[in-house]
Design brief:
Chain lengths: ~350, ~350
C-alpha cells in the first residue's frame, strides 16, 4: 500500500487523460469518430485517485465514460485512439467504440447500459476471491446509475458476500439532463450504509481527497473487509456528451434556441393544455436547467488547476513533466492518424 | 393535408390525444427536455421525468394502466429495455390473459430503435422480432410521418400493450442528438420520404396490423418495416433497371402481422425477399417464411437482415445492416431461382 499521495504523478495522470480527451474531442468534431462521445473531462481526479491504488489482478468495471480510467490504468493510447477511429487494429478491432471498450489484459470492461458496472464489479471481485486473493474490483458509474435496480442489487450482493468492491460514484448531480436531486430519494451514502457497507462523500475535484478515501477502501477490500461506497462529486465540463444540447444552449443561446422557438411558441399558445401560468413555469424550469451549464461555474470544479496550483513550488519540474505529456499525446495522435492514412492509401 | 416531419408527426398526434384524454401521461427519462413542447404545453404532471430506473417506472406504468391511466412510457432506446424486460414479458403481456380477459393494460411503450450512425450494438438494435415473439404485445414501427402519427394514435386507443418504435434515422432529433451532436462533419444515409411528408390535418388512427403495398412488383416481393422499407424501395428502383420487377410491402407493425397482404403478394410474385434490420435468426424474416408455408404458398425465399452484433466502426456497421446494395444482390440471386 502506498502511504502518501504523489501529487505530481497524480497530476500527470490527469493531464495525460485531459490532453488525450481533448484530442478525442477534436477527432470527433472533425467527423473521424462516429456516434456519441462521452468524455471524462472533469472526472479525472476521481479516476486518478482510485486507479493509483490498483495493481495487477485488480479489475475495473467501467461505464460509457471509461476512456480516462483505461488510459490511467495503462491501456495503450494508440490502440485506444485507433479503436475510437474505428480501425481494425484498434483495442477492440473497431467493433466496440468508446462505450464498449474491453481490455482483457487489465481486466477492464465497459458497458453503455447505465448501472451495468455494479454487477460486473461484483462478478470480477467474486472471481478474484477464488483466483486472485487480495485483489479487488472497482465499479465506476454516475450518480444516475444509483437509481438502477441492477446497481442497488449489486450493492447488496457485494455487502452480503463481503466482496472486495469499490463502488465509485462519479456524482455530477445530473442524470443526462435531469437534476438528480429531483429524482432521487435520500442521500446516496445513507443508501449504501443501509446495505451495511462503509460509505463516504468526497470532493471529486480534489485528487488527494479522493486518493485518501480510495486508500481506506482499497485497504479494507484487500483485507477481506468487504465493499465500500465512495460518492465523489464532480462536474462534467463537456456536459453529458459532446454536442450536449443543454450545454450548446447555454453556450450559444441565440443560435441554439432559434430552431426551438416555433415549437415552444405553439406550446405556449395552443388552445388546450395546462393553464398559462403552469406553462410559463415549465418554460422557466427548462431555461433554468441551461444555467446549470455555465462554463465558468463548471470550471470551478475543474480538478486540474486545483492540483496544479499546489505544485507551483517546483515550477521547472512541473513544466518539464507537462511538456513530456504534451509530446506523448501528440505522438500517440500522430501514430494513430498515420495508421489511418496508410489504411486509406492501401 | 400538411407537410410534417416524422418526429413532429408523433408529437402532434400525441398532443391531439392528450388534449382529448386527460388520462394520457408521458413518463420517461429526460422527457422534460426530449418532449420539450409537450412538457411546456401540458405541464410536469402530464409529462413526467423519471430517474434512470426503467424496471421501476415501466413496472409501475403497467399497474398504473391497469388502474385507469393511459401511460406512454419512454424507454429512450429500445436496447435499454433489457433492464426492464420483466415488466413487459411477465406482466404487461400476461395480465389480460391471466385475468380471463377481464383486465386490460392500455400501455404504450415508446422507444427509439435502429442504427446507421456508428453507435454500436448497445444503442442501435431494432429488437422488434424479439418483442413481437411475446404473446400479448403489439409492436409497431412506422416508416413515414403519416404512419408515425396515425400509428401513435392507434397505439393510444389499442387498449392493450403496444411497443411503438421510432427509427433514429427517421426521427431527426434523435439523429441530431446521438449521431451528429451539432457537427456538420458526419453524414448519414437518411431516406427523405421517411423523414418528411404529407400528413392529415386531423389525425385518424392507422390500424395496427394492416400492411401497405408500397410498390407493385411481378417478379419478387420485398417485405420490410421501418427504414428497411426505404432501403427496399431504393433497391427496387435499381432492380427495375436490371429488368426485375420488385414489389415492396411496408408491414407497419410486426405484430399483429398482416399475413393476408403478404400472402396475396407473394402468391402472385412467387418470390419473397425479407428485408429486416432486426437480427436474422429466429425473428421476423423466418416468421414470414413460416406464414407463407402454412398458407400452402409455393415461393422462393431470400433475406437481408442484421447479420450479427452491430459493430461500432461505420464501415463495419455498413456491412451488417441491410442496405440497398445488399438487397439488390440478394434480389438478383433470388431471380436466379426458378419459381
Amino acid at each position: 500500500m502506498k502511504t502518501q499521495p504523489d501529487l505530481l504523478s497524480l497530476y500527470a495522470q490527469m493531464l495525460k487523460s485531459r490532453l488525450f480527451e481533448e484530442a478525442v474531442r477534436q477527432l470527433w468534431q472533425d467527423g473521424l469518430i462516429s456516434g456519441e462521445m462521452h468524455l471524462g473531462v472533469g472526472e479525472e481526479a476521481i479516476i486518478a485517485g482510485v486507479v493509483d491504488h490498483l495493481q495487477e489482478g485488480d479489475a475495473m468495471a467501467l461505464d460509457h465514460r471509461g476512456t480516462a480510467a483505461l488510459l490511467m490504468r495503462g491501456s495503450e493510447p494508440v490502440a485506444l485512439l485507433r479503436e475510437l477511429l474505428g480501425h481494425p487494429d484498434g483495442l477492440c478491432s473497431g467493433m466496440g467504440g468508446h462505450m464498449h471498450l474491453f481490455d482483457p489484459q487489465l481486466l477492464a470492461a465497459s458497458s453503455g447500459i447505465v448501472g451495468a458496472s455494479g454487477p460486473a464489479a461484483v462478478g470480477f471481485a467474486l472471481a478474484g476471491t477464488y483466483l486472485r486473493p487480495g485483489s479487488l474490483a472497482a465499479s465506476f458509474s454516475g450518480e444516475g446509475a444509483m437509481n438502477q435496480g441492477t446497481m442497488l442489487e449489486a450493492l447488496n450482493l457485494a455487502a452480503a458476500w463481503k466482496l472486495p468492491v469499490l463502488f465509485v460514484c462519479k456524482d455530477n448531480a445530473m442524470a443526462i439532463t435531469t437534476p438528480s436531486p429531483t429524482v432521487t430519494g435520500g442521500r446516496l451514502v445513507e443508501r449504501a450504509r443501509g446495505f451495511g457497507m462503509p460509505a463516504c462523500e468526497v470532493d471529486g475535484s480534489d485528487v488527494e481527497a479522493v486518493w485518501w478515501a480510495a486508500r481506506e477502501a482499497v485497504e479494507r477490500a484487500r483485507q477481506a473487509g468487504g465493499p465500500t461506497f465512495i460518492d465523489a462529486r464532480c462536474a462534467h465540463l463537456e456536459g453529458h456528451f459532446l454536442g450536449d444540447a443543454l450545454l450548446r444552449m447555454a453556450r450559444h443561446p441565440l443560435t441554439e434556441m432559434a430552431p426551438r422557438v416555433g415549437g415552444l411558441a405553439r406550446a405556449m399558445a395552443s388552445r388546450r393544455g395546462a393553464p398559462l401560468r403552469r406553462r410559463a413555469e415549465s418554460l422557466r424550469s427548462i431555461l433554468g436547467l441551461t444555467s446549470l451549464f455555465d462554463d465558468r461555474q463548471l470550471g470551478r470544479d475543474d480538478p486540474l488547476p486545483k492540483a496544479r496550483v499546489k505544485l507551483a513550488e517546483d515550477q521547472p519540474r512541473l513544466e518539464e513533466i507537462e511538456e513530456s505529456i504534451v509530446a506523448e499525446i501528440q505522438q500517440a495522435l500522430e501514430a494513430a492518424l498515420q495508421s489511418a492514412r496508410e489504411e486509406l492509401e492501401s | 393535408m400538411r407537410n410534417m416531419r416524422f418526429a413532429d408527426a408523433i408529437e402532434d398526434a400525441l398532443a391531439q390525444a392528450m388534449v382529448e384524454d386527460s388520462r394520457i401521461v408521458v413518463l420517461g427519462e429526460d422527457v422534460h427536455a426530449m418532449r420539450l413542447n409537450l412538457y411546456v404545453r401540458f405541464g410536469k404532471e402530464r409529462v413526467r421525468s423519471t430517474p434512470i430506473s426503467e424496471s421501476a417506472f415501466l413496472g409501475a406504468a403497467v399497474a398504473a394502466a391497469m388502474a385507469g391511466l393511459r401511460p406512454v412510457v419512454e424507454i429512450m432506446l429500445v436496447d435499454f429495455i433489457g433492464v426492464a424486460m420483466d415488466a413487459l414479458l411477465n406482466h404487461a403481456a400476461k395480465v389480460e390473459t391471466f385475468s380471463g380477459g377481464k383486465w386490460r393494460v392500455p400501455l404504450v411503450v415508446r422507444s427509439a430503435c435502429g442504427g446507421g450512425y456508428g453507435d454500436a450494438g448497445q444503442h442501435e438494435q431494432s429488437l422488434w422480432g424479439w418483442l413481437a415473439h411475446i404473446p400479448g404485445l403489439a409492436v409497431a414501427a412506422p416508416s413515414n410521418p403519416a404512419d408515425a402519427g396515425g400509428l401513435m394514435l392507434a397505439a393510444l386507443q389499442h387498449g392493450s400493450p403496444v411497443i411503438y418504435l421510432e427509427h433514429k434515422l427517421l426521427a431527426d432529433y434523435w439523429l441530431e442528438a446521438l449521431g451528429s451532436g451539432g457537427r456538420k462533419t458526419v453524414t448519414f444515409d437518411v431516406p427523405p420520404a421517411g423523414v418528411s411528408g404529407l400528413v392529415p390535418d386531423r389525425w385518424e388512427p392507422v390500424q395496427i396490423g394492416k400492411a401497405r403495398l408500397v410498390r407493385e412488383g411481378d417478379d419478387l416481393t420485398m417485405v420490410s418495416v421501418g427504414v428497411g422499407v426505404h432501403r427496399a424501395l431504393e433497391a427496387a428502383a435499381t432492380l427495375e433497371q436490371q429488368g426485375v420487377s420488385a414489389g415492396v410491402i411496408d408491414l407497419r407493425s410486426v405484430c399483429p402481422l398482416d399475413k393476408i397482404t403478404v400472402c396475396e403478394a407473394v402468391a402472385r410474385s412467387g418470390r419473397l425477399l425479407a428485408v429486416d434490420e432486426d437480427y436474422q435468426g429466429f425473428g421476423l424474416s423466418g416468421e414470414l417464411a413460416a406464414v407463407l408455408l402454412e398458407a400452402g404458398i409455393a415461393f422462393k425465399y431470400g433475406r437481408v437482415c442484421a447479420a450479427g452484433t452491430i459493430p461500432y466502426a461505420r464501415a463495419l456497421e455498413e456491412q451488417v445492416l441491410p442496405n440497398a446494395r445488399r438487397i439488390v444482390e440478394a434480389g438478383l440471386k433470388l431471380m436466379e431461382t426458378e419459381r
